[in-house]
Design goal:
Length: 276
Amino acid sequence: MKKILLITLLALTPVFASAQYLEGGIFVGVSGYAGDLVDKSMDLKESHLAGGILLRYNINDWVGVRGSFTYGQISGKDANSSTESRKARNLSFRSDIYEFSIIPEFNILGFNPYDRYYSPYVFVGLGIFKFNPEAELNGQWYDLQPLGTEGQGLPGRPSQYNLTQLAIPMGVGFKYAIDEYWTVGVEFSTRYTMTDYLDDVSTTYVDRDELAITRGEIAASLANRTGEYLGTEPVNIPDAIRGLENSDWYGWSGFTITYNFMDGFGGSSYGCPTNF
């Protein structure tokens, strides 16, 4: 019985070994954002270049786990809106996004670089990201979170939001093994976040005079910019709706290229590529 078990394990070893390998590579694509300062999800006019590095461990033909660090910028502005009320609100922002994520991938057709050399895949995981919304006034950019443009931290108002947050990455992709070493892919993804402040817009206006006294004139000017749009004195509409209290989203879409640098359990290739 022991001999049969040993022979079985030895026979299965190449199968397990060929299924497990480690890849490293890069991601190049674009970033997008969905929130209070765009009319629709991932407005192409507000897309920016994004890039990152990734490490993918393929457990078997069907499942892999990816760790990645990605950088991109997101932005939005009411000036792009098709509605007059949104244009009159006249808010805008930009923010750098730095994300680290751990993401399981599920290969729909099964994938390895030897005999299953292409497959669509889906993924969902967990990420942590840092952001910092800014707005421009008179040619100078200001960090918005410390200004508390919706009265964050004042009595009866929300507390200041955290600039480090969790996200749930999810998406779809397609990968193709050029040979046993190089794999290319394309993917489309989005991130559900736990914050409504990617764009610094979420709840209602605070009294302009109170904000000017407690946080300064710059904060008051960036909190309500309707007067700039109308060409009038600053507008003061405390407790009027400034944004919608829904979580903001961001995402990356683009291309990956990875190199299989630790095939099997650290040895050379197991199996034989069939795509060439």
